[in-house]
Amino acid sequence: MSIEDYTGGSAPDAGVLVVTTNDVPGHDVKQVIGEVFGLTVRTRHLGAQIGAGLKSVIGGELRGLTKTLVQARTEAMDRLVEAARARGANAVLAVRYDVTAAQDSGTEICAYGTAAVIAPAA
């Protein structure tokens, strides 16, 4: 099984496998390159903040915030993959996300993991 089998081959991140596990079944880690990360900070526009305030009173999903967080997570992951690719990795192992409030004005989302070169086990 090749890396393309995992990533879909023609996907934007083709050639870089991203997993939350420490290893990939059927593959050996040939080289550990080191930590890589992708980072983004997002804020909501005034309309979304007002809508969120109203929702907090009556309850319900904050769809605008959910959409923003999904976009931010995708952007952080794209940046993680680019950082790994730039360092010569074909995989990122033990991927995690960290989300924090950034100075009460936005949300910081960081995707991070260990860049590595993997190959099918002999």
UniProtKB/TrEMBL annotation:
Family: Belongs to the UPF0145 family.
Taxonomic source organism: Streptomyces canarius
InterPro entries cross-referenced by the UniProt entry: UPF0145_dom_sf, UPF0145_YbjQ-like
Pfam families noted in UniProt: YbjQ_1
Domain of life assignment: Bacteria
Record's protein name: UPF0145 protein GCM10010345_87710
